[in-house]
Each structure stands twice: as C-alpha cells, then as structure tokens.
From TrEMBL:
Species the sequence originates in: Prunus avium
Record key words, sorted: Oxidoreductase
Known cofactor(s): FMN
High-level lineage: Eukaryota, Viridiplantae, Streptophyta, Embryophyta, Tracheophyta
Chain spans, region Disordered: 30-56
Matching Pfam families: FMN_dh
Protein name: Peroxisomal (S)-2-hydroxy-acid oxidase GLO3-like
Length: 219
C-alpha cells in the first residue's frame, strides 16, 4: 500500500503539535486510524523544544520555517516538501534557504486575517525573491482563465484551484467539476490566442500591467 500524499499541518490548538495525515490511492482507502495525531513529544525536534502555541491564524511566518523542521520532514518522506502561505520576500528567501522543493503563494483564503494582501498582488515579489531556484505556485483568487494567464505572466509555474471546483461539485457532482476545469482551460486558451501566445512558454511579463507599472509610468 503505497502512500501517495503526505501532509503535515500546524494545528494551533491547546497544545502545539503536528498532525500527520496519510492518504493512499483510491484503490485501497485507509482506515480512519490511518490519519493520526502525532503526540507532542514525538514531533519534529523544534516542536519538542517548545510548548508555545502558534497563534498566527494559519499564515506562515518566518519563525515557523526552520531548517531543523525541513530536515525532519525529509527524513520521514521521499516526497517533495512545499511551503504554503508565503506572502513576502523575506519568508520566500527563508523557505529557499532551508531547502524546500517549492513555494505556494497563498493567504489561506483570506479567512484568518483581515486585509491580508491578495496573492496575485504579492506573487511577483515572491518570484523575484526566489530567483528561479524553486517552483512558485499561486493559490487563491483563480476563478477565470485570465487569472491563470496573469499568474503565469507574473512568474508562477502553476496555479491551484479550490472554490470553483467545489462549486462545480455542489452544482452537478463529477460532471460539474469537469465542466469547471473545461471552462478554465477554454478561457485560458482563448486569452493566450488573443494575446498572441502560441504556447505557454510565450507568456511573458510584458503581457500584464500591474499597479506598480502604472506608478512607474507616472514618474
């Protein structure tokens, strides 16, 4: 029974702990106990040495990215480790320094903290900080094919789609999900055509204009 997905989530509850969730292939679903809570004293080395809670509301801060945690994760899985919740240049650089395989620019739906910046507005900052050393993915706000186009133009390697898929599922089950993905694909291809891009590699920074570009043009 091969493990196809391994995620470790920080749980800001009464006692600081890591929650390890194992998912296996659809052919052989795990028993409920397969998703288990790892006791505080058997977590990563850094978690063992601290009894403090994380009250960041799920937004990743630089203090949560430590090389000792990444090394621990690498010791228990061969899967690539990506950091999700990165919104600033500083955190992006820290993530690269500790050896992650990729970065997901995300504000976790904007539910934890009011006035959190939109992910598309900070994407270029994170991409510039990473400098091509690891892939950067965009999560949040992707509802049209044009959103996919803009993210790729600003340097993302891919996007994550959440709510539209859930809406499609609620509306028409599996067919609804397929239709949502088809709509995004069709809109994305149409945008590429109208922008003169025969392929994804032809999408460049010059195809979008941001607020910063407008300000520079006024100087």
């Amino acid at each position: 029974m091969a493990i196809t997905e391994f995620t470790v989530k920080w749980v800001p509850s009464g006692k600081t702990r890591y929650w390890a969730e194992f998912r296996v292939g659809l052919q052989q679903r795990p028993e409920p106990e397969a998703a288990r809570t790892i006791p505080h004293d058997s977590c990563s080395p850094r978690a063992q040495g601290s009894g403090e809670e994380d009250n960041s509301g799920g937004l990743l801060t630089q203090s949560l990215i430590e090389a000792i945690d990444i090394e621990w994760l690498k010791s228990i899985t061969n899967l690539p480790i990506l950091i999700k919740g990165v919104l600033t240049h500083e955190v992006a650089r820290k993530a690269v320094e500790v050896g992650v395989a990729g970065i997901v620019v995300s504000n976790n739906g904007g539910r934890q903290l009011d006035y959190t910046p939109t992910t598309i507005s900070v994407l270029e900052e994170v991409v510039d900080a990473v400098g091509g050393e690891v892939p950067v993915l965009l999560d949040g706000g992707v509802q049209r094919g044009t959103d996919v186009f803009k993210a790729l133009a600003l340097g993302a390697q891919a996007v994550l789609v959440g709510r539209p898929v859930i809406y499609g599922l609620a509306a028409n089950g599996e067919r609804g999900v397929r239709r949502v993905i088809e709509m995004l694909k069709d809109e994305f291809e149409l945008t590429m055509t109208l922008c003169g891009c025969p392929g994804v590699m032809d999408i460049t920074r010059s195809h979008v204009r941001t607020e910063c570009d407008k300000l520079h043009s006024m100087l």
